[in-house]
Amino acid sequence: MLRKILAAFTILAFMGVSTACTTWTTRGVQDERDYPSPGRKVASVVKANGDVVDFEGPELGRVLIDKVEGRAMVLSEETVELKGPFSLVRKRRDGSVSEVTDASGRVHYVVSVVKEGPDRMTILEHHSEMQRVSIPLSEVRLIKYRTTNALLTLAAALGVVAVGLAVATAIAFKGWLD
Which end of the chain lies in a sparser environment, N or C, as judged by fewer CB atoms within 10 Å? Predict the structure, then answer.
């Protein structure tokens, strides 16, 4: 019984302390005074042109002195030449092609058709892949980064110690009564 109580207490203590220590802060960036300090982990950035960059995976973006670097999903468009016959061509409501399955069975998601023939088609296709990106902080207008809240961390740690002492006292007192 004592092991179960201690295990439950340990799990609750880890949950309380881990959630109190870090929070995500979103801040507008107008000039150098608004830059987060170097070394901060970054979840996302909104650039001056409106592009949103979400950093993914175990290694989030990091603030360096004058830029944010990390791995992010980058969406690009590329022109692709397809060979037919096309087993499936799906269209949008407006009649434009949205999806094409080529002769090899590969599905292509179409932005627009550049050139179309009976057994050949040239399309503009969305392509996304994880890439290493580097964004100058001068191009950033909004940044979401991780901060440590020392006051909440201290309160959580003191709470864990107080609850631990209360549980230990209750167990000792119960043993003393028996």
Answer: C
